[in-house]
Amino acid sequence: MTSRTKTQDAAPREWHTIKLIENPYLRYGLVIVAVVYLFWSVGSLDFNWHRMSSGLTRAANMLARMVPPDFTRWELLIKGIVESLQMAFAASFFGMILAIPLGLCGASNLVPRPVYLAARTIIVLSRTFHEIIIAIFFVKIFGFGPLAGVLTLIVASTSFISKMLAEDIENMPPGQLEAVRATGASFPKLLVYCISPQALPRYLGVSIYRLDANIRHSTVVGIVGAGGIGQVLAATFSRYDYDFSLAILIVIVSIVFLGEIFSNWVRSGLR
Amino acid sequence: MLTIQDLTKVYPTGAKALNGVSFRVDEPKVITIIGPSGAGKSTLIRCINRLVEPTSGKILLDGTDIAGLSSRGLRKARRRMGMIFQEYNLVERLTVMENVLSGRLGYIGFWRAYRRKFPPEDVTAAFKLLDRVGLEGYQNTRADAISGGQRQRVGIARALMQRPDLLLVDEPTASLDPKTSRQIMRLLVELAHENNTPALVNIHDVALAQTFSDRIIGLADGRIVFDGTAEDVTSDVLTQIYGEEDWSTTIRKVDEEDENGGEKTKENSLIRESSAG
Asked: Is A15 exposed, middle or buried, given 0-12, 13-18 or 19+ CB atoms closer than 10 A?
């Protein structure tokens, strides 16, 4: 009661929005640190205008040598593209299959805690490294060629699809699982009668998206020697066959474009 | 049939949802459980088929203690208990028929479940039940394409497909409008009586409970504070169950029922007739 009358009596009252950081020293201190950091990081870029300008002429030179694109070695081109597509399809297929057990084990509402943690650890670890790094590892282990590329994409696809699947299952309303359990159904029956019909459309959608991504990535992992059109592309660059490089790039762009159209078409049909 | 002995449930948060609940069900009657939110109604129902693990106590269904069963034994026991939920809990992307037939999942093998190959007598029974709950012709409709009342009818059919020895019903009408609520309750009570199946029904609508039950159990703070017939539910009893806060609204309903004993509304009397017959 007394405190209430006190605040009413206090004539000029102030109001301001709540600051993210209340302490002004800390607030302005952090702003200063941020500005200093910005200048420092720009300084470390080592901008060299001379290098930039000579790079521009080199770029112009390279572009000039790229046109017209050279399709005379189309057999090599087709072989590379087919290899890339094979890698993408094989990796998507095995990724889809391997992702099912891993995804189910990664759903906290289905499995005991230790299984969940183990599955999540595998998923996180395989997602930690970029595909290029995994590809370098596999090229070191299995040598140059598409095997390393396929294995790389399988690892990437499995972790991606299983993560999406696990999260989709975790987001399922618990009631449906409860109701099917309450009929006395065992876990495998729960799987085929409740989880699979509910999770299937999204699982297929994610897998198709991953196929689309694999087509793109299969062209990239080749650059570190893991087979496919990327390997051919890297070779043309190092041999200064820029006109052939452009031909390859045009084909890659159109393949990725077609892949995207296909993926969108399939996924729109799934809803 | 069913004996609950000293059932206690303490959640990991420390909340004591059930505190030594004991009662017996000896006749195939409809027993409603009333009580305020948080009194432990849902926990009680869910402990009986162990969707919630009881902390201590016994749940004897025809002599077997459900609380002590292994997971295999529990699945066998669950086949004998049909459950009906507030949010219907149908598998939404499956058809009405698949949902109804899921009541037989405990009795068929994995591959049959996978291929949806149910024995012909189950399919016949499912069609019969669909007709009985008023959903003839809906067998191939997807469960997410029908209304709430229809979904609950599917839920009832699914539970009855189990040919259960006990029905566990958790707030069957809480998501439905008043008219549909009455229709669903009437259907439930009729089917329970037809099949001679005892039913434990959680409900928070006291008027519905009084209209449709053979016996009422009042739960407050995880303890049974009342056990009797609809006529025994007096204003004092309701105070005991719900406490002072809900007093005025709850007692008005009871007073109305008491005063208007002779001149009940038309709908009310119709319901009593049909539930009696």
From this structure: exposed
